[in-house]
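Handover notes (outgoing to incoming on-call)

Open items:
1. Acyl-CoA dehydrogenase family protein: sequence verified, structure written out, both below. Nothing else pending on this one.
2. Nothing else urgent.
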Amino acid sequence: MHTAHESPEHTKLRSTVRDFAQAEIAPHLQQWDRDRHFPVDVVRKMGDLGLFGLTAPRELGGSGGGLTELCLAVEELGRVDQSLGITLGAAVGLGINPLLANGTPEQQARWLPDLVAGRSLGAFGLTEPGAGSDANAMATTAQLRDGEWVIDGAKQFITNSGTPITSVCTVAARTGTNPDGSPELSAIVVPADSPGYIVEPPHDKMSWRISDTHPIILRDVHVPEGNLLGERGNGFKLLVSSLNSGRVAVAALAVGCLQTMLDLAVEHAGVRPTFGGPIGRKQGVAFQIADLAVMLDAARLLTYRAAALKDTGAPVVEFRQAASIAKLYATESAVTATRIAAQVFGGYGVMEDGPVARFYRDAKVLEIGEGTSELQRMLIARGLGLPVE
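Acyl-CoA dehydrogenase family protein structure tokens:
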């Protein structure tokens, strides 16, 4: 299935990623999920396919696409496995795009070739044990001493931060205090091999078990002054820009989940017999599956509308509102879809040797990552002009 008026190039990209996911990911999913295994070889193959370069210009080794192309790839990966969908989404949206948008030519030449080719992965260290959406509560500090940033702090739930091919983590830190008393926040690129960059053991997660997620400790980490990404004190604006696009990619991941739940529910309801016929004959089942189709279409349209606004240079305020709406609706719909699919499958829906249970587990984090549903509602309300706190 594809969106209305999809270009031949987009249809080809969908088909390419779908075939790759079925051939390289699907046969191994159950084992990888059970073992919490991060498949570096498959991630490198994703790089060979050009997936990490979808948003990068051709002169930097990319294909010159935009958020729409990234969403297409994330959606198709997400139809098979949500973990590798978020691996791509985070690597591009949080690892590559901040360097594309804010990096100096020297920074881009140093780090982007390997990131764009998928030979290495980048991470973004924002969330902390005591600070998430409230960036003003950030405790990580960076002090400028003798031409070096000295960074101390801790980060939590950082995707792609501890893989064997992680090369950099852009760290958000307090670099001073603004005149109004609020923290001055800046973004600093920290090479993963820096002394004091300590990758803690991976989180034991209910969701996205194949994805790489770690706590990070930054203990007296020294990096050159030139590793500042963008302007000093501009970290919050940089973060918000990255998160807006990231929310649309998470919405695309939710669309992939919705599509698979609909496909599986239709197939199962058509063949599972009960009381002399398939359960799909029962309105109680059929109507819920019909609702899945409505949610899928709405989520897909909202997601690609937001992506198109970004790609066509719409005003930031318009794109931000569309991104939050897409993220909120698509992710909450995905959670509902997995619940419905599990109910349609009955006992089979909660068996770990089937796909529904894995999608059920994976869906919940969609409402949390890249800004919770509550945060999205707050942002949407503010976008409407309401003085919500």
